[in-house]
Amino acid sequence: MFYSPSQNRHKRWYHFLSIGQKKVWALAVFCGFVFAVCLTALLVYSARAASYDMRQVGQSLPGSLLYDEDNHVLAALTEHDTLPVRWDELPPHLVQAFLAREDDHFFRHGGVDYVALLRSTVRNILSLSYKQGASTITMQLTRHVFDLQGKTLDRKMLEIVLAQRVENNYDKHTILCQYLSRIYFGQNCYGLREAAMYYFGKDICRLNLEESALLAGIVRAPSLYNPQRSRKLALKARSETLRRMLELDFISQQELARADSSPIPDVFPVRRPSAADPMPGQLATWANAELDLLPAAVQSERGRGLAAVSYLQLPIQQYVQQAIDRALTAIETPGGPYPVEWESLPCADASAQKLISSAKRPTSLARPGKPIKPGQAKPECCVLVVDSRLNHRGNILALATGRDQQDPRNRWLDNVLPGRTIAPLVFCCACLPGGSAHHIVAHSARITASRLGFDIVHHFFSGLKLETELPDKQHEFDLYDGLFPMRKLDLARLLFDLQNMGMGYRPHLISDVWSLSRRPLYADAQAERPQEYIRRESAIAVSHLPPFRYHEGQPTVLHEELPGENGQWTMVFNDRGVAVFVWMGLEGSAGEGVAVSPELRRMLSHASLALATELHQTARKLLRSSPAKK
């Protein structure tokens, strides 16, 4: 009998090493591969991050700009102060509120909170979603400054490396101030300075605890948590911020109770502009109004700065301003020179030229360059040049809301009494389907509308969706005669649609919007066929009837004096060309109506027609000479 060693004998530690040698090598190779991948990724993202200019972080906030069709800068769209918030104007409880809400380890990490990042990564993997980002204040600032978009791993890695570069180049105070200067607070408020003034009418240094907690709570979801949108959600956001401040020992229980019980203001203060505030110009006012109506992607970028490309053409725009000044100077200057540009126009005649050159100006007309005294008036004018070419219709090529380019008042939104200019719209009612034999267009709008009946006319005008209250049946003749208020812009739009076979073209300025990093935010879709706004057959039937003046091969002209000293209205239009709308009248001192003498009325009438004709001819010429756009 012989001895055979047991196969189940106890294994020594060195036996384990010899048997697991392949596994050890496999693990080493895997770790080496992971290390190489991480090192490569670090080198790649470090190289990408090195291409970003860190000086952008410390600069004043970028402004938004308006460009013409050929990318010439026309106007600055930013109206608010773009200087960053300063550290010395931040109350301690304001800093604590934002740290509690956004990044309580801000003064302890180097730009990235790796513990929070790991925790959020595990939660996102378990939930199979991207619910938590663990972005520090530095990472959020990096995302704002360098326009990093999208919830992707690539963006997150680049953001992490850039955040560390920011921390290496700037101190914590600068980083926090730049962050507070750029974030969005809802209601079109960008930056803490603007939000404090909008919601509380205060400078930053005067904000108390509850106001600071409210502003810190808003930034999580500005469109939902701002108090103008929802007071209930705003109070909830403020309470969450205060409770978090208590957990971090920033405030006491008594301070929390006092701040949490304070109400949110019912009425938000309106900041009165001072003489030192920059005044937005005409183009900026119009462009900002259009930007307010664009999608949320545009609104979220306005605080960071954007580029709005318009349909405006700089040569036409410059000519419009020069022509307006010439026309108004001819009216207000005693013995003023008759503009040379008018002498060759079809509407020019010797009597009008003599009237402007030699008529004595009434004492009620303010002298050029002099302030308006009580009982005096000055001539004023607004112009709209609209593209009427196929696939371009409705694009604004040039505009003026007044003589002074820096005057932000948009006179196109002021009301006038349209008078006889709306007669074509009344005539459209006679061409509606289902009409009887007596539904005919008479020589006047009142007779035509009286035959049709108040209900038909009123229903038609109600469908035009005008921002005004139409006369009732007791005042039906006011409806027929155009003796009710209407915005100048609405009147121009309706007449433009009427001449374009009733299609609902909206005069608009903005064609494209880009972020400052050239990321597209909005592209105009007006090239698509618009809906029929006025019945096609009706629009075609009345487009050449009086008060329109039409001759074969000539532009269509509408030139009328508006009732009630509302000035002169002129339209010059041709299909596949341009449409020019001109309003010219007198503006008196505040609250005073100014009587217009017969001579002055004739001068305004001729100047309005001559200016519109001149602008129409010049705009067509400049439009034909401009290179075709793809």
What does the secondary structure layout of this molecule look like, with pairings?
Blueprint: H1 13-19, H2 21-50, H3 55-58, E1 65-67, E2 73-76, H4 92-102, H5 114-127, H6 137-145, H7 153-169, H8 172-182, H9 192-200, H10 209-218, H11 222-225, H12 231-247, H13 253-261, H14 282-291, H15 296-299, E3 306-310, H16 314-332, H17 350-358, E4 377-387, E5 396-400, E6 415-416, H18 423-429, H19 445-452, H20 454-462, H21 476-480, E7 486-487, H22 488-499, E8 510-515, E9 520-523, H23 536-542, E10 556-561, E11 568-573, E12 578-588, H24 598-625
Parallel strand pairs: 1-3
Antiparallel strand pairs: 1-2, 3-8, 4-5, 4-12, 6-7, 8-9, 10-11, 11-12
Report on this structure.
- The chain is an alpha+beta fold and 630 residues long.
- Among the domains are: 18-51; 84-268, Biosynthetic peptidoglycan transglycosylase-like (Penicillin binding protein transpeptidase fold, Orthogonal Bundle).
- It has 24 helices and twelve strands.
- It has a five-stranded mixed beta sheet, covered by helices on one side.
- The longest helix is centred in the first third of the chain and has 30 residues, at 21-50.
- The radius of gyration is 34 Å and the shape is elongated.
- The termini are far apart.
